[in-house]
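To make this tangible, we now present a fold written out as tokens:
***
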Amino acid sequence: MTTKTSELLAVAAPRTVAVVQRISDDQLDLPTPCPDYTVRELLGHLFTVVVNFQDLARRRDVDWSGKTDHLTDGWRDRFAAETERLVEAWSDPAALEGVSPGMGLPQETVGEMALIDLTVHGWDLARATGQRLEVDPAVLAAGHGFMDKMGDTGQQMGAFGAPVPTTPDATPLDRLLGRTGRQPGWTP
């Protein structure tokens, strides 16, 4: 069985996994478009996101403290396996029903949060390490829909920076990045 959320995650996940798998050990201390994170720190955060959103799909409590060091032997393959589990967790239609006990938001919105994190942080990591992330138009549309609903709240809670203006001819990806507080043209 699949859901709209799991289908979008299934499109986005392999693209972010490919970026992660191409990150070399000598790139782990590079800066990222997220000013508070190096590549290593952002990978750790994204790993925590991928694992915790599996539990959120099942309405379990999660730990956001990020104390686990995910970048131990075999971390690239483990990240790939965890993203597969993320897609699987959101493929159950029950995952989208009701309100998240831990987040206080509709479960469907929580699933969209997983998608936006996977996509935007995938771009962050790609940009920081000299790679390119191609984002599917359906994923971009879902990301813009999420920002329409949750962008202001996310900014107030510190999940997103202040919106960055983009030009009228900006790509849908660049507009989404700007909405999440990123400079689409960021370079290290």
Observations:
- The chain has a mean pLDDT of 95.
- The first helix runs from residue 4 to 21.
- The chain is about 55% helix and 0% strand.
